[in-house]
Amino acid sequence: MLLPEKTLIAHTAGSVPLSALGRKAGAGVLYPLQTFTKGFPPDLRKVPFFVEATDNHTLAVLKQLGTDIGAGTWECDSVQRRHLHVAAVFTNNFSNFMMTAGESIAAEAGMDPSLLHPLMEETIRKALRTGPEAAQTGPAVRQDTDTIKSHLDLLSFSPEYQELYRLVSEMITGHYKKNAK
């Protein structure tokens, strides 16, 4: 179906370039930096929107829309938006998987995974209050190789979790060693 030429079109994807719309005018991106799950509507008033457009008129319309429904708008080109999207994957998708892994490991030990929920809440609360880098704790930050080895041995039931633990611990240790200099 062809849209009238004056119709503005926009997509909302973080990883799709503006050029995918195939128009030289009247096209844009209105990217909400938020996770969306059926049954869990976010408060859009807290969501930042990132905009890009083929022309000033479309940009103005998208900026107004993002401001009206969200926490404001920021101009962001396709390259910046791709970086922001991968940052969001680390922040949301990877942290969710880490919590899934934690629950799985607790269940493997015969413990109720919901016992980790207060820790999950405090982790997010502290990261928001102090910043995630300052909130980091654990054996990798302390360079506690005995505890790390013990944990790796305990994860023998899952070579995948062992590898994930090893890799992330090495990255944490390296990050904090580098930043301590």
Keywords:
4 strands; 181 residues; alpha/beta; Rossmann fold
Structure described in brief:
This protein has 7 helices and 4 strands, in the order βββαβαααααα.
* Radius of gyration based on Cα positions: 21 Å
Find the count of extended strands (DSSP E, 2+ residues): 4
What is the distance, rounded to the nearest whole angstrom, between the alpha carbons of the first and last residues? Answer: 60 Å
* Overall body shape: elongated
Number of helices: 7
The CATH architecture name of one domain reads 3-Layer(aba) Sandwich
Query: What is the C-level CATH assignment of one domain?
Result: Alpha Beta
Structural class: alpha/beta
Give the ordered list of helices and strands. Answer: EEEHEHHHHHH
Quaternary structure annotation? single chain
Helix content: 40-55%
Give start-end ranges of low-pLDDT stretches: none
Strand order within the widest sheet? 1-2-3-4
Looking at CATH, the homologous superfamily of one domain is NAD(P)-binding Rossmann-like Domain
Q: Report strand %.
A: 5-15%
**Biggest pleated-sheet summary:** 4 strands, mixed
Mean pLDDT: 97
- CATH topology type of one domain: Rossmann fold
What does this structure look like?
Among the domains are: 9-77, Rossmann fold (3-Layer(aba) Sandwich); 136-181, no CATH class. The model has no long low-confidence stretch (mean pLDDT 97). Strand 3 (49-53), helix 1 and strand 4 (73-75) form a beta-alpha-beta unit. The protein has seven helices and four strands; from the N terminus they run E-E-E-H-E-H-H-H-H-H-H. The longest helix is centred in the middle third of the chain and has 31 residues, at 78-108. Helix 6 runs antiparallel to helix 7 (159-180). With 181 residues, the protein is of the alpha/beta class. The radius of gyration is 21 Å and the shape is elongated. Strands 1-2-3-4 form a four-stranded mixed sheet, with helices on one face.
